[in-house]
Design a protein that fits this description.
Number of strands: 16
Distance between the termini: 48 Å
Strand content: 15-25%
Largest sheet: 12 strands, mixed
Shape: globular
Structural class: alpha/beta
Helix content: 25-40%
Low-confidence stretches: 223-229
Bound molecules: threonylcarbamoyladenylate, magnesium ion
Oligomer: single chain
């Protein structure tokens, strides 16, 4: 890649050199929008204390105004700029999982723009486990608000090319790092309720959280959290490819058989069917390893769009470990869910 080429649509494509990171940080300080890689998915960053910059994120993504953003920090000291009343569990979890794919929901500090929280008094915060993201936040010298760098409703971007597909011409710069190591977003954990509750399953598993907290952790939508806290993002249909996706869940052998039978049926009718299922090898690395499926999930959904399939059939996976995050995303992408 040439150094700092200007994309035809006016978005600066930056490499990972220190000079480029300085340029990106200067853009953030001036109220600009910069997309950057993290270990989960690419984020679309703005200075979290700058209301006007944060509002630009919502416009660039077409994001509903009531869906709050995650604030990214590069050092534990920055947590006090973002959140009030930091409970002991927050420090325990941060010590164990940061930098990493865990966003903690805490009471918001007044230093963070109210728009970040979309009307809530709370804020989600995390420290990403990616050298470029951390250098960018350090160089910008401010906490960085960043949702996933996709158009609202589209699968999250796991490569800078996905970011350009969705946001080329709509943001100031994109830092071209490699593919994201995890491939699904961070776990969002609410610590403002009497018992910790997972609002969105993600890169840190429920089992890992329970081990560190030494208690059961509820998952919103699966087991009701005490006081039913909610993540505004949960009500939107997300992660969707353009073609309708049918998710097939249930007993592994039966779900695989139905998936194959439906594929044959629709192909017989002349439809171009995309399969997310190991026996057809359309999970690029195959198999039922939830980590590999997570890594490939969004890329596979975007590839289906590019190959213009009429219909996607996805075979469900188990919900242990990262499987919980994979099934959460597949359910949100699905137009229909069949259980066998
Ligand atoms: O891995 C990730 O989390 C990525 C990278 C870029 O860090 N970011 C990401 O952001 O996925 P986004 O905006 O696509 O998803 C943020 C989720 C949404 O479901 C939102 O509703 C929830 O976090 N959220 C943010 N702040 C919240 C709050 N104060 N209370 C409850 N839910 C919140
Ligand atoms: Mg998102």
């Amino acid at each position: 890649m040439p150094e700092n080429p200007q994309s035809p649509r006016g978005t600066l494509l930056l490499d990972s050199s220190p000079r480029s990171i300085e340029k990106a940080a200067a853009l953030l300080k001036r109220g600009g929008l910069v997309a950057f890689p993290t270990e989960t998915v690419y984020g679309l960053g703005a200075n979290a204390s700058d209301s006007a910059a944060v509002q630009k994120i919502f416009r660039a993504k077409g994001r509903p105004p009531d869906n709050p953003l995650i604030v990214h920090i590069a050092a534990i000291d920055q947590l006090r700029q973002v959140a009030l009343c930091i409970p002991p569990e927050a420090l325990l979890l941060a010590g164990r999982f940061w930098p990493g794919p865990l966003s903690l929901v805490l009471q918001r500090s007044s230093l963070i723009a109210a728009e970040v929280s979309a009307g809530l008094s709370t804020v989600a915060v995390r420290m990403p486990d990616h050298a470029l993201a951390l250098s960018l936040i350090r160089a910008a010298e401010v906490p960085v608000a960043a949702p996933s760098a996709n158009l609202a409703g589209r699968p999250s971007p796991t490569s800078y090319r996905h970011v350009l597909e969705d946001l080329g011409g709509r943001v100031d710069a994109v830092i071209a790092g490699g593919n994201c190591r995890i491939g699904v977003e961070s776990t969002v954990l609410d610590l403002t309720t009497p018992r910790p509750c997972i609002l969105r399953p993600g890169g840190v598993t429920r089992e890992e959280l329970e081990k560190v907290l030494n208690c059961r952790v509820a998952v919103a939508g699966i087991k009701l959290c005490v006081n039913a806290p909610s993540s505004p993002g949960m009500k939107y249909r997300h992660y969707s490819p353009r073609a309708p996706l049918i998710l097939i869940t249930g007993h592994p052998r039966r779900r695989r058989r139905l998936c194959n039978e439906l594929a044959a049926h629709y192909r017989g009718k002349g439809l171009h069917v995309g399969l997310l299922n190991q026996s057809y090898g359309d999970w690029p690395t195959g198999g039922q390893d939830a980590g590999l499926i997570a890594f490939n999930l969004y890329r596979a959904l975007r590839l289906m769009d590019l190959s213009r399939v009429d219909l996607i059939l996805a075979e469900g996976t188990e919900t242990a470990g990262l499987g919980l995050a994979v099934m959460n995303r597949l359910r949100k992408a699905a137009a229909r869910v069949l259980k066998v």
